[in-house]
Amino acid sequence: MSKVVEISPTTRHEGHSKLVLKVNDEGIVERGDWLSITPVRGVEKLAIGKTMHQVPKIASRVCGICPIAHTLAATEAMEASIGCEVPEDAMLLRYILQCANRLHSHALHNILSLPDMYLPGTDTKINPFSPEEPVRSVGLRIQRLREIAQTIGEIVGGEAIHPSNPRVGGMYTNISPLAKQKVYDLAKEGRVLAHEHSEFMIAVFRNFQKRDWAEVAGRQIPIPGDLGYHNQGYMAAAPIYGSSSMDENPTWFPERWTEVRPWDWYMGEEEITLEDKDYPVGGTTPAGEKTWPQMQACTGVPLYDGQPVEVGPRARLVQFRNYDEKGAMGLQIARQMEYEGCLYGIMEACDALDCSGKVLADEIPQGDGSLGWAANEAPRGCDVHLAKVKDGKVRWFSMLVPTTWNFPTCSRALTGAPWELAEVIVRAYDPCVSCATHMLVVDEDKRIVAQKLLE
Amino acid sequence: MVEKITVGHVHMSGCTGCLVSFVDNYEGLFKILDNYADIVYALTLADVRHVPEMDVALVEGSVCLQDKASVEEIKETREKAKVVVALGGCAAYGNITRFCRGGQWNQPQMESFVPIGDLIDVDVYIPGCAPTPQQIRNVCIMAYLLLKGTDEQKELATAYLKPLMDLAARGSDAKRSSDACGCDLMYDVINQGLCMGCGSCAAACPVRAISMEYGKPQIERDLCIKCGACYAQCPRSFFNFDVINEFEGITELITGVME
Amino acid sequence: MVLGNYKTCVAARSTDKEILKGAQDGGIVTQLFAYALEEGIIDGAIVAGPSDEPWKPEPIVATTKAELLAARGTKYNLSPNMSLLKEATRSYGLDRIGIVGTPCQMQAVRKAQLYPIGMRDVPDKVALAIGIFCMENFPYQSIEALVEDHCNVKMESVTKMDIGKGKFWAYTERGAVAQIPLKVTHKYEQPGCHVCLDYVSNLADVSTGSVGTPDGWSTVFVRTKIGDDVWSKASAAGCFETKEIESGKTGLELVTKLATDKITKNQKTLEGRATFGVGKGLRNPYL
Lengths: 455, 259, 287
Ligand SMILES: Cc1cc2nc3c(=O)[nH]c(=O)nc-3n(C[C@H](O)[C@H](O)[C@H](O)COP(=O)(O)OP(=O)(O)OC[C@H]3O[C@@H](n4cnc5c(N)ncnc54)[C@H](O)[C@@H]3O)c2cc1C
Ligand code: SF4
Ligand code: SF4
Ligand code: SF4
Ligand code: SF4
What we know:
The structure holds three protein chains of three kinds.
Chain A: E1 3-7, E2 17-23, E3 29-36, H1 43-46, H2 54-60, H3 67-82, H4 88-113, H5 135-157, E4 166-167, E5 170-171, H6 177-210, E6 213-216, E7 219-222, E8 233-234, E9 242-244, E10 257-260, H7 262-265, E11 270-271, E12 290-291, H8 293-296, E13 301-304, E14 309-310, H9 313-321, H10 327-337, H11 339-352, E15 368-378, E16 381-390, E17 393-400, H12 402-413, H13 422-428, H14 450-454
Parallel strand pairs in A: 8-14
Antiparallel strand pairs in A: 1-2, 2-3, 4-5, 6-7, 9-15, 10-13, 11-12, 15-16, 16-17
Chain B: E1 5-11, H1 17-23, H2 27-35, E2 37-42, E3 54-60, E4 63-64, H3 68-80, E5 81-87, H4 89-93, E6 113-114, E7 124-126, H5 133-148, H6 151-172, H7 183-190, H8 200-204, E8 210-213, E9 216-219, H9 229-233, H10 241-244, H11 247-258
Parallel strand pairs in B: 1-2, 1-3, 3-5, 5-7
Antiparallel strand pairs in B: 4-6, 8-9
Chain C: E1 8-14, H1 17-22, H2 28-38, E2 44-49, E3 58-62, H3 65-70, H4 85-89, E4 97-101, H5 103-114, E5 126-132, H6 140-150, E6 158-164, E7 167-172, E8 177-181, H7 182-185, E9 206-209, E10 218-222, H8 225-236, E11 240-244, H9 252-274
Parallel strand pairs in C: 2-4, 4-5, 5-9
Antiparallel strand pairs in C: 1-10, 1-11, 2-3, 6-7, 7-8, 9-10
Bound molecules: flavin-adenine dinucleotide and iron/sulfur cluster (SF4) (4 copies).
The site of one iron/sulfur cluster has 13 residues of chain B, from helix 1 and helix 4.
């Protein structure tokens, strides 16, 4: 008979989430639910009635790790709603921001994944904060890559976290030739580091793939060859930047998106029947306690073509670069493969940027309530914001953020894994949970949405 | 080597930007962790799942009154930490969560978010959104000197932290406002006849809500996110001569500590 | 301590004729920034540049000598130079910033460095802070009133304004000079100046003003290590003509006296504020 084990809260990712796992006698997950338990700040609802200029600033603050993605997606959703064309140099600045954000975020994620990994050729797990070599050099390289990314973000975006320069209509200000030179030089330095670093990280993840076991809670847990495999599809709007309803040929399709309530998706009330006091650190939830995923989940379940999909680095590589490696490590490796592209992207955009070009549209319409959307390829995947703006005020706003897409997909990827390795799978998605608090848009017949929006 | 202090990061309803900012001390983060502080709790960085005893708790985010776990955790934090720091605008003033009003699936009842000072006594405020890496670093260093330093260092740390403690005392006092807004510049600086037109407030604002018009701040209230940075940065909000006059020495001290 | 900590105090003026021509006094500020710019000590400086309105300053980031020259001279109204301090490190791309300002602006710089609450990555990028002396400042409209109503001169035709020898002076293109006694100017002062406890920019790296030296010369206090370093290099490079500051009535004694007067007067204002109203009080920013 299957038993229920709960890991709550999960660690080494952004926000609060938990795992509720039904496991067989061997401890293999038969059904896994991974859900957000982060309080819902309700940004989509509080946005209603606020100005189109303020909402992107608030939207940025759902996540401090990918604030650039949220700022850009929200800003561009507003622009799409009001029908505002943004000058090309402003778009180049945004492109630089996009690349910088991905670079910093991937590097930060390395710090969070490394503790599950082993130094190749040893049975020693990696503590990224250890002062000992070779780890310290890796730690310093990660921080330098982040510093490069955050500094570029700060020069172009005004702030390293929550950029202040982007605005509806373009950017507040272009950058000086001196600033552009600085950005370019930083990117050049970063390119070399990123190359070394991605090779190192890929070697670490490959090493984990080859291992027979991983040590968890003092036990050697066998690592299955198909750790984290799933059969769901992928969704990505672009290799680097994104798409919006302003595009001639959009690459994201609102009519393919539907949603399900957590009530219909997640497990009902269960009693915890398996507990492990040694699970690091502090143990799993004590046996006898109750858990109720369908009531506790804080996010809805977005579907694309009626199915959960994976978004993120691998989705981008599958869609645009013929990548096909499955599993948790396949996803980790895909992420490392994106490093260098961020820096080339920055340099190319710098080359194209005219520092004296205008960066703000001459006219910023106030909007007539039409639906506009923007899909931004955030570090963790496609981040779609949808908005209706009328008379300068937001009338409707929705955020389909990456981790919300990944919750159900990753939940399926848990099946077949030893429960002790469930968090290793979850962490492969680089979950960013705080932002993943999104409203359901279901009409009376429990159907969507999209048709209604597109009227 | 002297004993380190223990530091935890407690995540309430925030965006993790505050923590990213701490990590944005880059190489300095390792310096702090090697020599001065052990991180004993931080769900985002380490596997410890329950709030332990600690010297300093850096609390990020406001508290959702409808989320029992959050309310319990903030109370536990107060019991277990010697010094509680409200890290960033959300913890100190509510920031954007001041705009929350519920109504969103899957928890439409979650509508009340309050700064942590509404539920527990807070010792130090670090306003701003995000708070800056350098301000967080300075508070960490001063907290270290306060708990482990010589008498002279303790005195300096106390003097340095005092204004940030005063902000916290004001924020945690139910009778006085714990609200923050660009309006503070109006109420507490210009209306008080204290503004001298330096422009620090405009520079500090993370959403460009402040422009200087004829030398005085104009606040775009429909942009302000209520982070508290402008007022705290204003030289006419607090200005402690005993500390700031020693800027050269203190800067050297901080550089030395981080080298 | 009314003059703050300093390593040296001298009388000086720039050796560059072009700088001196439009400078307020000895051209110390412009000369020192120009030298620092040339030597790569700073990448740019925040100064009070011209704007669309006559005599209304607009803070700018000057990265060339020409831009520094265009910002010479004292504008007796508010130039919120701090408002660019963070942006200078952002879209302008500066790593080493120069900034000039009144004593209160120097206080703002140091507060930003020690308490960088909204000033991420700014503290270690301030490479040279030059303070000017300041008895008081004015809102723009006050200066308009003083020049146009009291001096009967159009703002556009004024070439220089000055405060000295107990008077406010407006010089015009055609050589005419209008002057009014300072008692007329007092009511127009910026209220925030009445709680100000610093006359000679105690917290600057180098501070300078006209008081204490003859016309065309400046009084210079070299205060910090940074200031000392730049000042000695610039002097060695022949940027400045210097002489000893007089210790007598028109020299350092006068500076001390004016500083003491200002601080005493404003301390009184602060005391008065503490009991302003009935059983009430106004806020004291220094507590
Ligand atoms: C409001 C005010 C009051 C003053 N009061 C006194 C006084 O009581 N006693 C005294 O000895 N000196 C006073 N000064 C200083 C004096 O007028 C000269 O500015 C100083 O001596 C520098 O002259 P300089 O020839 O070296 O500078 P310059 O080479 O002429 O350069 C002056 C620099 O100051 C900048 N600047 C001009 N106006 C402002 C402003 N409003 N705010 C910030 N920066 C500005 C300019 O952009 C320029 O970079 C005052 C200055 C100001 C702005
Ligand atoms: S203060 Fe800003 S950075 Fe910190 S949690 Fe709140 S929104 Fe995020
Ligand atoms: S920071 Fe400066 S300009 Fe802003 S309110 Fe304070 S004194 Fe006035
Ligand atoms: S005006 Fe800007 S700095 Fe001030 S509280 Fe509002 S958002 Fe923060
Ligand atoms: S008198 Fe003081 S407050 Fe006023 S401008 Fe001068 S230095 Fe600033």
